[in-house]
Amino acid sequence: MYPFRQGSFAPKNCWYVVANRQDVGRELLGRTVVNTPLVIWRTQGGEAVVLDGRCPHRHFPLAKSQLEGDTVRCGYHGFVFDASGQCVEVPSQDHAPRACRVRRYPALEHGLWLWVWVGDEDKADPALLPPLSEIGLEGEGLTGTPLIRREAACRYQLLNDNLFDLSHLAFLHGSSIGTRENASTPEELVKRPGFVSSIRRIRDAPVPATMWQAMDGYDRIDRAMGMHSYLPGFHAGTTEIAIPASHPTRGGERLMWNRVYHCITPCTPRTTLYHFAVAVAPGVDTAALKVALDPVIDEDVFASEEIEKIIALYDGDPPPELMVKSDTNAVEGRRMIQAMMDAESQGG
């Protein structure tokens, strides 16, 4: 399916964010990842559990059922499953068939999030997770905070494409976090297996609308903005703002720095789960930051959902796109994700 080859949707042999760690507790959560229904909870001992969310009896969603101790009782006919996925009770008979079980998926709490692997279990390597030191959650003096969650009515790659090319900040977010320099400043690009990144070093540019209060009275700034994308769906953004280098006495003095995190999780071919978080310096008001950034995330979701509507007019097969220089990361990212899916289809 667009923008991939016919029959390609999303890779399964990879880690996806399914929830913020702080949201996993003693209530059942339901998620869908790459067409796989899941039920999630935390045991009485504190362990996060992710099971297949379909009761094998009559397909009832286990996430719509009841948590009893460390077991889940299906809300339809009362089958009970323990944390390993084994059925331990069938109320209508004396014993539970050993064959009655649901899969338990590999899951890890890493950084701010709970990650799940819905592909081949023997390939679930924790080393494939983004290193916390590399994404700024260790060693930089910043504190991470989950801020926003959205369920988007569009295919996940539209949100990935949005993050691969930050020139859109100049226009889609021109009234909040962007200026024209986000499009006109040349990019510095890096790629390696499973990873693409871009950074723009913007010099002596106007302060974006949402940043005035934090700029110590300066109306022009130097700004380095980048996005580091760990495929297929985790994007760690960086922002560092300084007094312009041309200033006679304070040139280059840092005014602000932070990290942002966009977790893009494919649910179904046309729905996506989107978690957004920040890592900020001590003293930053994250509640105020959420108020400022809520509309920005909504703009990204709006654009992606509107594109999804256009694609639907062509029965999912739109005309070829006109690519330009700023699409380099999108092209490379798409190629890498397609290669991941190709490897899975070939048993790799």
Précis, in short:
By secondary structure, the protein is an alpha+beta fold.
Give an overview of the whole structure.
- α1 (156-164) packs antiparallel against α4.
- Strands 11-17-16-15-14-13-12 form a seven-stranded antiparallel beta sheet.
- The mean pLDDT is 96.
- The protein folds into two domains: 16-123, Rieske Iron-sulfur Protein (3-layer Sandwich); 133-345, Naphthalene 1,2-dioxygenase Alpha Subunit, Chain A, domain 1, CATH 3.90.380.10.
- 17% of the residues lie in helices and 33% in strands.
- It starts with 15 loop residues before the first strand and ends with a helix.
- The longest helix has 28 residues, at 286-313.
- It is built from four helices and 17 strands.
- The chain has helices at 156-164, 181-184, 286-313, 328-345, and strands spanning 16-20, 29-33, 36-42, 48-52, 66-68, 71-73, 80-81, 87-89, 107-110, 113-116, 143-152, 187-192, 195-206, 220-230, 234-242, 254-268, 271-280.
- A hairpin with a 2-residue loop joins β2 (29-33) and β3 (36-42).
- With 348 residues, the protein is an alpha+beta fold.
- This is Rieske 2Fe-2S domain-containing protein.
- InterPro entries: Cholesterol_7-desaturase, Rieske_2Fe-2S, Rieske_2Fe-2S_sf, VanA_C_cat.
